[in-house]
Amino acid sequence: MNDLADRLVDAYRPYVLQRCGERGWAHSARLLTSLAEGETWLRASLTSLLDLPFGAQRRGPLEVFQEAMRFPTEALAADGVAEPVRDEGVSRALPGDVYDLAPASTRLLGDDVWAAHMAWGVEKASAITRPAVLVATRSLIDWSRIEEAASAASMRAARWHGSASGAALVCVDLELDDALAIVEAGVAERVSVVAYGPHRSVEVLNAATAAGAMHVLARSVFFARLDLPGWAG
């Protein structure tokens, strides 16, 4: 979703300058400096947000864009610009936006921004309704193969983040130091757990079985099958 972040950042300065111009507010040096700071903050914040799995995105990109209005707001206040009269409902929704800069919709930022925002919304809605497969591994190759299998099965893969709540399946690489603790955590939350490891690591494989993993497989067998929907049951 870097395209959405790029479009929002590109729209930021022109949008604010247009809003200020419409009201006759000067484009002071302080305002221009604030916009450069706002662009930097906006890009970093959007990247952090959009890099998260959809289920972990607690707010939307428009909310981040609206928050970035604090930079020009502080500049306008420092320039002594009088605050405009605001609609009461808008004031309650965005009390800090005293110069009424924040857009109510990405439609106000241009068709390209709005289309990218809608595409993000559709993808998020689709993703959060698909069963989740949590993956605990350090191997980028393992992650890539499981993620591809999940996508093919109309599921979504996400990194293990300490809880199995809401997941359909947890896949655990037994070469992780805390693998057995992850197995136990998934079992405790009544989520199907599949553990895999080197076929020679008999003790570790047995320990995963004892910890309650529903399926414990040698690594080669795990990747030969990759029956994520079947394992999720």
Overall geometry comes to elongated
Strand order of the largest sheet: 2-1-3-4-5
**How many structurally independent domains?**
2
| Major sheet | 5 strands, parallel
Order of helices and strands: HHHHHHEHEEHEHEHH
Average of pLDDT = 92
How many alpha or pi helices?
11
Helical amount among residues, as a percent range?
40-55%
Rounded to the nearest angstrom, the radius of gyration is 24 Å
Kindly estimate the percentage of residues that lie in beta strands according to DSSP.
Answer: 5-15%
Distance between the first and last residues' Cα = 31 Å
Instruction: State the total count of DSSP E strands.
Output: 5
Low-confidence stretches: none
Brief characterization of the structure:
This protein is an alpha/beta fold.
From the structure above, extract its key features.
233 residues, alpha/beta, Rossmann fold, five-stranded parallel β-sheet, 11 helices
Structure description:
With 233 residues, the protein is α/β, with parallel strands linked by helices. It folds into two domains: 2-126, no CATH class; 131-232, Rossmann fold (3-Layer(aba) Sandwich), CATH 3.40.50. The chain has helices spanning 2-22, 29-50, 61-67, 70-78, 88-93, 111-128, 140-152, 179-188, 202-210, 219-225, 228-232; strands spanning 132-136, 156-159, 169-173, 192-197, 215-218. The protein has a five-stranded parallel beta sheet, sandwiched between helices. It is elongated and about 75 Å long.
